[in-house]
């Protein structure tokens, strides 16, 4: 993608520098108050292209955001958003997460979908999503907005690749045929204390509904989900902050658990 204006390039460099230098910045709509959602996704594309090149990494999937009706109402919007996952964002349960590489991180519990078929088109249904899914697994996404105090508008967060920075996937892979994905319970704890409980029903009623929505949105831009990609289907509860010395664990009914330690 060729960026059309110097302003676009400045915004992308501004956000990339914040990630590189691990520091928060003032949201971009303070300077560009008329930024549209269409333009925000164009900026996201430009940011991701730069990030892929600079970090010598590759795209491995897509993450969904604002999949809770309550969050949508809070943001004053009526639909979800999406960003992309890069290989260098994948973290592992057995390797401590480095607090020094994060600005003001929060953890969200999600269900990860592993596709073994392409999924593209404006008529994709929940049934199509499940038919294209080989496995699901418990996941924790670490979001780390580059914006000061984690405060932003919808267009700000889309341009910032929806606050993406890290994600961890549990070791238990389960066929979606073997469970009711619309009613998976979850308990998330920090240092042994329960912080959040939730259900997959919080994700637009069913995670597959959220993914079908995203497929339709992607089709408007000539895109879709590809075989082999990972999809983080949306948060099942509010995110929780964490710091050095904290251990985060999310336990899912029938899906097992996923965890990480921050050093």
UniProtKB/TrEMBL annotation:
UniProt entry tagged with the keyword Lyase: yes
InterPro entries, A to Z: Fumarylacetoacetase-like_C (IPR011234), Fumarylacetoacetase_C_sf (IPR036663), Hydratase-Decarb/MhpD_sf (IPR050772)
Name under which the protein is recorded: 4-oxalocrotonate decarboxylase
Organism lineage: Bacteria, Bacillati, Bacillota, Bacilli, Bacillales
Pfam family, one: FAA_hydrolase
Species of provenance: Siminovitchia acidinfaciens
Gene Ontology molecular function, alphabetical: 2-oxopent-4-enoate hydratase activity
GO cellular component terms, A-Z: cytoplasm
Residue ranges constituting the Fumarylacetoacetase-like C-terminal domain according to the UniProt record: 105-258
Keyword entries, A-Z: Lyase
């Amino acid at each position: 993608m060729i960026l059309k204006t110097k302003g676009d390039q400045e915004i992308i460099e501004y956000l990339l520098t914040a990630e590189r230098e691990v520091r928060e910045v003032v949201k971009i709509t303070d300077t560009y108050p008329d930024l549209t959602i269409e333009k925000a996704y164009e900026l996201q594309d430009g940011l991701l292209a730069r990030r892929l090149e600079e970090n010598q990494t590759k795209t491995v999937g897509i993450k969904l955001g604002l999949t809770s009706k309550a969050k949508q109402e809070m943001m004053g919007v009526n639909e979800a958003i999406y960003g992309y996952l890069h290989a260098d964002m994948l973290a592992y349960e057995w390797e401590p997460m480095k607090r020094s590489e994060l600005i003001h991180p929060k953890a969200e519990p999600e269900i990860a979908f592993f596709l073994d078929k392409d999924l593209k088109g404006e008529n994709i249904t929940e049934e199509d999503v499940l038919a294209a899914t080989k496995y699901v697994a418990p996941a924790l996404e670490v979001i780390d907005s580059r914006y000061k105090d984690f405060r932003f508008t919808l267009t700000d967060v889309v341009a910032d690749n929806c606050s993406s920075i890290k994600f961890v996937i549990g070791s238990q892979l389960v066929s979606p045929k073997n469970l009711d994905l619309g009613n998976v319970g979850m308990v998330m704890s920090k240092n042994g204390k329960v912080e959040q409980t939730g259900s997959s029903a919080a994700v637009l009623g069913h995670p597959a509904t959220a993914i079908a929505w995203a497929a339709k949105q992607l089709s408007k831009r000539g895109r879709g989900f590809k075989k082999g990609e990972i999809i983080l289907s949306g948060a099942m509860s509010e995110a929780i902050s964490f710091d050095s010395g904290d251990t985060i664990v999310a336990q899912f009914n029938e899906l097992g658990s996923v965890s990480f330690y921050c050093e």
